[in-house]
Amino acid sequence: MRTFPNNLLFLCIILMGLISCNGGGEDQEKIKLIPVVMGLEYQYIDQEGKIIINPQFTNASIFYSGSAVVQTSGSGNKWGFIDEKGKYIFPAVYKQVSIFKDGLAWVVNENASPNAINEKGDIIFNLPVAEHVRSFQEGYAAFSQLSADKVNEKWGFVDKSGKISVNPQFSNVENFSDGKCAVSNEEGEWGYIDKSGNLIIPYQFNNAQSFHNGKAIVRSLAKVGVITSDGKYFINPQFQNMVYDDDRYLINQDGKFGWTDKDGKIIINPQFNNAYPFSGSALAPVQSGNNWGYIDKDGKIAINPQFEYALPFNYKMALVVSGGKFGFINLDGKYVINPQFGDVSRDLLVYLSTRKSLFIEVISDNSPRMIMLEEKRISDSIIVADSLTVVMAQAENRRRADSIEIARQYSRFSVNAGNKNQDLKSSVSDQDIQFYAQAEAVVPVGEKFTLTYTLNTQGSNFRGPNIQGINILSGPNTSTKSSIRMVNGSNRMLIIYTYTYLLEAPSDGIFNIPAATVSANGKQFISNTLSIKVVKSN
Fold first, then answer.
1. CA distances for 75 relative to 71, 352, 404, 408, angstroms
2. How confident is residue 485, by pLDDT bands cut at 50, 70 and 90?
């Protein structure tokens, strides 16, 4: 039986949810030092496989403009920043950090709200009203603030001086790009604002992505297209999915992947089972049959399908999986670092897939939400759809004296992931955060059914899947359940967040539900995908 790396499922989920990540659009970092796992710790190797920074970190990012985010090993597991020699730029004393963008990074100390720091580690300002806050882009950072009910959040923007430039008022937001930002209202409709917060493209889309070179991908009902800066369609909605890919678009049409030019004309026929963007390279990874290879910009096979998985090139190197191990090839398809690593940094995987970092958001460690949840006493057991029980994992309440340690009792649970149910044990993060999707595997045509996403800690910025061929009757509807109990003489709290859709399938067939994403503890988590069989009613 073939053994796969722990992160291979994570790679598959990234692929299924790629449409929600915008794809491309940012200058590409050249990855000179690669974070890989040796034993139980992360080390950094160069492009020849030589160890440059010895194994010593519990977690690690790639280098962004000369610095990398790392988590110390041993007691405390604090976060900090290192240079390319492996030296700490300033002491690692933080509970959470983001990467540096626009010269600033966000850091969170124990029991504190987010601070913006410069590259010397000096605090520029504190943002006490923030529940979540993201990295700066075009001079502005998106942040959320709790509503009066202490449960829901509204998003706004702060500038680099700490001044709130756009008051929190939106249910969800992207980041600024080309001077505009996609935002959504309470009804789940998306539009665009300028940097003053003025709505310049009205709420009208089911989903909306960032602008790149004056154009943005938007979803209208079951199809996606491209609009110009005035909100008018440049490419009419006609594809299942589209991903910006520099001078072209990666598309999904009838379940097959291909490419169009910048005007929407198909230049590589949809024929591949899966694909990633070119991402500035001459070659793009595609899946043909069960294996992955690479094509050139004319759609011709350049590297024969032979890998278990493959990601886009970063300049002249690409990460591939062979024999259950990660390795790296050059543009000729030859190994420059043989497959030998059982695991690599998730930030590396996310960046190679989307050109975005995993470390772009932090959460306040001084949130009133946990205080409110502590005071609730809801049922001792939490029943999830179809009687699948999940006993929740921990989420500390830092606001209370000596901190309330959240229960870590959780059992194996069944998740529909593909054409069958699978028993999974989550190891999503150091905090054992679990985020997964559930729905009935088989449903009749015309009957209503639910799709539920479950998160076992406080979350925000939920981004639902781009569902094709199935009608969304309502959702996502958010609910929170918690209970406090005595465990080994200490108060402990169980907490669960659910995001639920009510769906109906108008026709029979097999329908794939892509991954959803959510933010928790300053990181983004990606759910499993689902496959639902819709059958004709008797």
1. 11, 31, 19, 19
2. very low
Q: Is residue 359 packed enough to be buried (19+ CB in 10 Å), middle (13-18) or exposed (0-12)?
A: buried
Q: Please provide the size of the chain in residues.
A: 538
Question: Reduced to 3 DSSP states, what percent helix, strand and coil does the chain have, rounded to the nearest 5?
Answer: 5, 50, 40
| pTM of structure | 0.69
Question: In this structure, is the dihedral angle defined by the CA atoms of residues 370, 371, 372 and 373, taken in order, positive or negative?
Answer: positive
Alpha-carbon distances of 222 from 154, 219, 243, rounded to whole Å:
27, 7, 15
Distance CA 98, CA 172 (A): 20
Structural contact between residues 328 and 335, judged by C-beta atoms closer than 8 angstroms: yes
Q: Sorting pLDDT into bands at 50, 70 and 90, what band is 25?
A: low
- How many angstroms separate the Cα of 108 from the Cα of each of 90, 114, 402? 15, 5, 18
Alpha-carbon distance 453 to 530, whole Å?
11
User: 290 Cβ partners below 8 Å, 6+ apart?
Assistant: none
Closest CA to 305 of 316, 293, 295: 293
Q: What average pLDDT does the segment 59-72 reach? A: 95
Domains of the chain: 367-535 (2.60.40)
For residue 23, which amino acid is it? Answer: G
* Residue 428: band (very low, low, confident or very high) from pLDDT cuts 50, 70, 90: very low
